[in-house]
Design a protein that fits this description.
By secondary structure, this protein is α+β, with helices and mostly antiparallel strands. Helices cover 59% and strands 19% of the residues. The chain folds into two domains: 16-91; 96-123 and 154-237, Alpha-Beta Plaits, CATH 3.30.70. The chain has helices at residues 9-91, 96-105, 134-146, 152-155, 169-180, 220-237; strands at 112-121, 157-166, 185-198, 201-212. Strands 1-2-4-3 form a four-stranded antiparallel β-sheet, with helices on one face. 11% of the residues are buried.
Length: 238
C-alpha cells in the first residue's frame, strides 16, 4: 500500500528546527543554572573563608598581644630580679652561706654551733663634736661636698650573734682567736661561757658577738674556696 505524506517538507523542517531550538534553550538554561549554582556555591564558600580568615586574624592578633604582654612581663621580671640581686648584694655583701661556711671552717675539734643570728643596724651616731676653727670647718665642709653620696644600705652594720658548745674554755678561746684573724669578721668578743652537764658530761656553752667587715671584697674563687672548705669540714664532723 502506498503511503502518501500530505505534510509539506518546509513545515517538517521548521518543526524540527523549533524542537532543536527548544532543546538548545533547555540545555542552555540547564548550563546557566549549573553555572549560577556553582557561582553561588563559590561565593558562599568564599564568604565562609573570609569569615574564617577574619577569625584567624583576630586570634592571631590576640595571640600576638598575649606574646607581647608575656615578653613585657618577662622583661619586668628580669628587671625586678636584677634589682633584687642588686639590693641583696647591697644588703648582704657576703652571702650567708659563705659566712656560715667561714664560721664552720674555723671550728676547733669538738666545738659545735647551736645558733647563729645576723642583724643589720645603722651605726651609732656619736654626740661628741670636736672643736675646730673656721679653716678646719671650711676644709671639712669642702671634703664632705666632694665625697660621693653613699646609699643607706652600704652604711648598715651586720652584727652576728653566735652560740655554741665546746669541751672547755680552751677551745672557745681558740675559736675566738680564729674568728679574729678571719678576713670577714672583726670585733669578735665573748659574751658568756657557762658550764653545763648532760649525763655526767660537762661542757661549755658560749655566746660570742662579731661584726662583718664593711670593706670585704670576695672574688668568685674566694667564695668557692670558702664553701668547699665548709663542706669538707661538715663531712669530716660526721
Amino acid at each position: 500500500m502506498l503511503n502518501i505524506n500530505f505534510v509539506p517538507d518546509d513545515y517538517i523542517q521548521s518543526s524540527e528546527s523549533h524542537r532543536a531550538n527548544l532543546m538548545y534553550l533547555v540545555l542552555f538554561a540547564v548550563v546557566m543554572a549549573a553555572l549560577g549554582g556553582s557561582f553561588m556555591t563559590i561565593k558562599i564558600r568564599q564568604r565562609g573563608l573570609d569569615t574564617k580568615e577574619r577569625l584567624v586574624n583576630t586570634e592571631l592578633a590576640h595571640a600576638q598581644k598575649a606574646v607581647e604582654q608575656f615578653e613585657e612581663l618577662q622583661t619586668k621580671r628580669k628587671v625586678m630580679m636584677r634589682t633584687a640581686l642588686t639590693t641583696a648584694e647591697l644588703l648582704e655583701p657576703v652571702p650567708r652561706s659563705v659566712l656560715l661556711a667561714s664560721l664552720t671552717n674555723n671550728l676547733p675539734a669538738g666545738v659545735s654551733l647551736l645558733k647563729l643570728k645576723l642583724v643589720q643596724k645603722e651605726p651609732k651616731k656619736t654626740n661628741r663634736v670636736p672643736t675646730a676653727n673656721k679653716y678646719q670647718k671650711a676644709q671639712a665642709d669642702k671634703a664632705a661636698a666632694a665625697q660621693t653620696p653613699v646609699s643607706r644600705e652600704k652604711l648598715l652594720e651586720t652584727h652576728i650573734d653566735i652560740e655554741g658548745i665546746a669541751p672547755s674554755d680552751r677551745q672557745v678561746a681558740t675559736y675566738i682567736e680564729s674568728l679574729s684573724s678571719s678576713s670577714l669578721l672583726n670585733n669578735v668578743a665573748l659574751v658568756e661561757s657557762k658550764e653545763h652537764k648532760v649525763e655526767d658530761t660537762a661542757y661549755r656553752r658560749f655566746k660570742l658577738t662579731a661584726m662583718l667587715r664593711k670593706d670585704v671584697h670576695l672574688s668568685k674563687e674566694d667564695i668557692e674556696r670558702i664553701r668547699a672548705r665548709g663542706e669538707n669540714t661538715v663531712r669530716s664532723s660526721f
